[in-house]
Predict the structure.
Amino acid sequence: MSLTQHGRAGFAVALVAALGFLAAPAAAQAPDEAHELTFTRDVAPILQRSCQECHRTGSIAPMSLLTYEETRPWARSIREKVVARTMPPWYVDKNIGVQGFKYDYSLSDEEIETIAGWVDAGAPRGNPEDLPAPREFRDIAEWKIGEPDWIVEIPEPFVVAPEAPNWWGDLYSDSGLTEDRWVRAVETKPSIEGFPVVHHAVTSNSDPESDDDDYAFLNEYALGKNGDIFPDGTGRLIKAGAQIKFNMHYAAIGVETTDRTRVGLQFYPKGVVPERKLISAHVGDDEDLDIPAGASNVRHDGYYRLNENAHITAFQAHLHNLGKRQCLEAIYPDNSKEILSCADWDFGWHIVYNYEDHVAPLLPKGTILHVTSWHDNSEANRWNDDPTNWAGFGQRSSDEMSFAWVSWYELDDEAFEKEVEARETLADNDE
Ligand code: HEC
């Protein structure tokens, strides 16, 4: 298709959209002249759902967006960030792959249009009576999974100085477990005082019987996310003597703040081995990275074979400062292929994308997971310290990495068939 044709096609689409819009004057949300977009009616509900968990006093974001007075001065900046989809931080591609994630606070195209239209109209307040009741926030002290049976803290309280630079790093604690236990629920959370400085926290556990000091992904703390309560009969094994690794990102808030992040575990009763075991693994590691100085779009590929049938529960890209984007593809035993997810990468946010149960990929054994990663070593990448340096694989965060954390549980053939059939029934009912 030539460029001109392409342009025309785009125009036609825009025209149809506009006509559709005129033909449906009854549509309540459609912004038209009679319906001036206002803060109280149109914008406040969006901020409540997608922004305020972080944007309120005492939380992790730099400013509060609870009231009109607080929001109005940020209108331009809000427009810019939501249109670019850098805020809220949720970077999984909405146009490719499986759609449907737990804890998804991202904005729909309509919501972005609403915010942009409101700012363009001069960010009016509107009728105070339209304002929804204030959102209630959870009590940070409360465990969403219920009281844990076992709690492991970071080894020492961590003090963040008022103006400290961002701190990324790993902290290690003994789990204190003297026997193997199957976990049925897990939650990672900052201490109450520390909560405003904990940008993210990701926990993993070691396998003391393994020779390589590998850690398996356990749980991610992120605002707006609950702990992980595994489906009935599903569990994750933590072995006696395991270490817990806390991968932390601390960000200063102008006052000295002390945190003691911890992870809470609930166990299956002793001796009970759940039917389905939850696994998290590095998938598609490529340790032969070659990222030339200044290059903005460098691709690498890695592969991982699933030896058992799998129900995939979550995907998280793992890249360092120069990461740009990652895709996870399934290559089925019959060689057909399907992209499961793609997500842009911003080193400031380590987001785990948890698939909704009814769309979670079901992959037959023998499927190969194909991970494609892109790195940006140009000066356009705001996390790049030195675009004149070549970059390669390594453990330091100034080195690069390229793999995906994928979580799944295994299913024998019979159980797998059952899940596939249930999925097909669901799809038929939808039609
Ligand atoms: C998960 C937490 C979180 C959510 C949800 C979130 N933000 Fe943010 N936001 C932050 C943090 C933290 C920053 C500071 C910059 C950074 O770390 O990326 C920020 C920065 C911003 C900025 C730039 C402020 C500046 O200093 O220039 C704007 C504007 C913004 N957010 C708007 C929004 C809006 C609008 C929403 C909802 C549609 C939203 N954010 C949702 C955490 C969040």
